[in-house]
Amino acid sequence: MGLTQPQEVRCTVRESPGEDWDAFVSGFPDASLYHLSGWPQVARSVFGHRALYVEARDPAGALAGVLPVIQQRSRLLGNFATSVAFFNYGGPLAADPPVAADLMREAATACAALGCRYVEFRDTQPREVDWPRRTDKITLQLELPATVEVLSKGLGTKLRAQVKRADREGVSCRTGSVELLDDFYAVFAENMRDLGTPVYPKRFFRAILERFGAYCQLVVIDCKGEPAAAAFLTFWRTRAEVPWASCRAKAKPLGMNMKLYWELLALSVGRGCTVFDFGRSTVDSGTYRFKRQWGARPQPLYWYRWERALGEQPPEASAHGEERGKVMQLATAVWQHLPLPIANTLGPLISGALPW
């Protein structure tokens, strides 16, 4: 009796997801929240980006793999695509490794036809493609205990003392959704200005909360009558992640950033989460050391990049790369000194086109 030949799987690119997309994602063990079809749609509705849905189907029409892609265009940074933009995860989902690689190649072909100079695939595992992989970013994750009491004991006396330092200021913690958006955004926008980075428009967060409210929660730390620190939490299965967390500069010496992260961890334990994802960092950076002190362990990220051959790139893409980097460094330094109202006006006009 002969061996059974594998069924042929066909990849296609669509601008809207198949009706079975989200069911496939929900049943796939390695899926992230950001593989759901609504995330590219949020990018399209808020920023006007092109959303691409790469699907692999077997001869019977059943999904065998998916890959969401967002195309961005910018006068400064050109034409590029990401799976998925604005977040840490979004590579191909397929049980068969060759199918995952086919999804990536199909996405690269489609984006090349759209004039993209590169496509970045933000993955958590190695893939069967001969493309460069970024190694400068990692994610930091903490395994959570079953109770808040065990969590507190595991932090050690130094961290507990820093959290208690904030408690002496009479702080309070609020959790919620859209009703806390203004307070979250006030802290976030100020922090982004201080970092020299254009802020997302408030409508971006509103769109996420309205579409994915069951998976999201805002947390605000108040001190002396005003928001001092704030974070945006997402939940997927038994994992919690903090894509955005901010603390006002004047509140950091009072330990408000420490209080914020303690509340995030305690909240996640209370929801039954077993892993807390602190988000991506550059190794040995300030944010990396801050997250490590909580006991978080680094996990590698496999961010692959397909790029056009140098001779195929538009002249502006290949000739001005170094100049573009210098401009970005200068822009960051200038942005940090902008008055907050100006930064908050200009930032939302720029941020959607940046390679977050």
Commentary on this structure:
The protein is an alpha+beta fold and 356 residues long. The protein folds into two domains: 10-136 and 302-319, Gcn5-related N-acetyltransferase (GNAT) (Aminopeptidase), CATH 3.40.630.30; 145-273, Aminopeptidase (3-Layer(aba) Sandwich), CATH 3.40.630.30. The chain has twelve helices and 15 strands. The chain has helices at residues 21-26, 38-47, 97-113, 148-155, 157-167, 181-195, 202-211, 256-270, 286-292, 315-319, 321-335, 340-350, and strands spanning 10-14, 50-57, 63-74, 78-83, 93-94, 118-123, 133-134, 137-143, 172-176, 216-223, 226-236, 239-247, 275-282, 297-300, 302-307. The strands form two sheets. Strands 1, 2, 3, 4, 5, 6, 7 and 15 form an eight-stranded mixed β-sheet that branches. A hairpin with a 2-residue loop joins strand 10 (216-223) and strand 11 (226-236). Helix 2 runs antiparallel to helix 7 (202-211) and helix 5 (157-167) packs across helix 8.
Short description:
This protein is of the alpha+beta class and 356 residues long. The chain is 37% helix and 28% strand.
Cα Rg:
21 Å
Report the structural category: alpha+beta
Shape: globular
User: What's the CATH class label of the largest domain?
Assistant: Alpha Beta
Please state the second-level CATH architecture of the largest domain: 3-Layer(aba) Sandwich
Instruction: Determine the number of helices (DSSP H or I, runs of at least 4 residues).
Output: 12
Q: How many independent structural domains?
A: 2
Q: Low-confidence parts lasting 5 or more residues at pLDDT below 50?
A: 1-6, 314-324
Query: How much is the average pLDDT?
Result: 90
- The strand count comes to 15
**Share in β-strands:** 25-35%
Name the CATH homologous superfamily of the largest domain: Gcn5-related N-acetyltransferase (GNAT)
Helix content: 25-40%
Q: What separation lies between the terminal Cα atoms?
A: 53 Å
CATH level-3 fold name of the largest domain: Aminopeptidase
| Order of H and E elements | EHHEEEEHEEEHHEHHEEEHEHEEHHH
Largest sheet: 8 strands, mixed
